[in-house]
């Protein structure tokens, strides 16, 4: 059984290498004559000398007059022989070395939460960007069919650029979270999740528009739109958390539900405040007939409304 385990970790790349030591003394440095050969450019040819201590779980270390020295975790420099025990560590150059006995206890394993198979499939780059193209088509069609204005490529291009900005920002932020928490960015998976949610939201907007038309009730359309948007946000947050973090299912569900509920409350409150401001003797009219989402930005010129929509009256 190895009497000493040395964990070598590069502090820049975070790559760890484990060395099993059975014989003493041990030297660490860049020279090929050392027991442990380091590729750290800040480590001397022969940097550190290690001897076995009186106790099986202790070792004596000594700096071999190195150029950059050896340091303890508290920042103090090692000047003479220093006694280390299992679990102690030192720093040399851009590397840290942890010393363990073979029977040193290790941390309990983390709970593994496998990513669903369907996310792995849609998260492939080709599929993810194909979904993006479908969303572009859906957004462009919505912009075209929900307006009686003359076709303007600039407006459609702005809508597509807006969608691209949102999905790249969302995927970028969650990829950064994943890289920090799980060391796995998962950029295309995050991208695919949001793209699918936005694609379904476009379908939901269409459903809400038709329900509002058939029921002749503005409130029905708004209720369907807000409900579907809240559900889509909750589902998207849930799966983004599952990709980027190690949170258990219950916590992911609670976090997604809380954020989505707060979102719904803020939207409803904003809609009620807007409705209260619109209840006056001088009503405002939209300049053109648009989808439900356009009602949040109404035009205030009745003459422009009739000018743009006179052909509907004539027909």
Give a quick set of tags describing it.
single chain; 5-stranded mixed sheet; 4-stranded antiparallel sheet; alpha+beta; Tumour Suppressor Smad4; 315 residues
Q: Could you walk me through the main structural features you see in this protein, from its secondary elements to its overall organization?
A:
- The model is unreliable at 283-300 (pLDDT under 50).
- This protein has helices at residues 117-122, 125-145, 153-181, 187-215, 218-244, 249-278, 302-314, and strands at 4-10, 16-21, 26-29, 36-37, 48-52, 58-63, 82-85, 89-92, 95-100.
- By secondary structure, it is α+β, with helices and mostly antiparallel strands.
- The chain starts with a strand and ends with a helix.
- The strands form two sheets. A five-stranded mixed β-sheet has the order 4-3-5-6-7, with no helix packed on it.
- It is elongated and about 90 Å long.
- It has two domains: 4-100, Tumour Suppressor Smad4 (Sandwich); 117-269, no CATH class.
The overall number of domains is: 2
Strand content: 5-15%
- Discrete helix count: 7
Taking pLDDT < 50 over at least 5 consecutive residues as the criterion, the unreliable ranges are 283-300
What is the string of helix and strand elements?
EEEEEEEEEHHHHHHH
Largest sheet: 5 strands, mixed
Measured between the Cα atoms of the first and last residue, the distance is 93 Å
User: Which radius of gyration do the C-alpha atoms yield?
Assistant: 32 Å
Name the structural class.
alpha+beta
* Count of strand segments: 9
Give the neighbour order of strands across the main sheet: 4-3-5-6-7
**DSSP helix fraction:** 40-55%
Mean pLDDT: 81
What is the overall shape? Answer: elongated
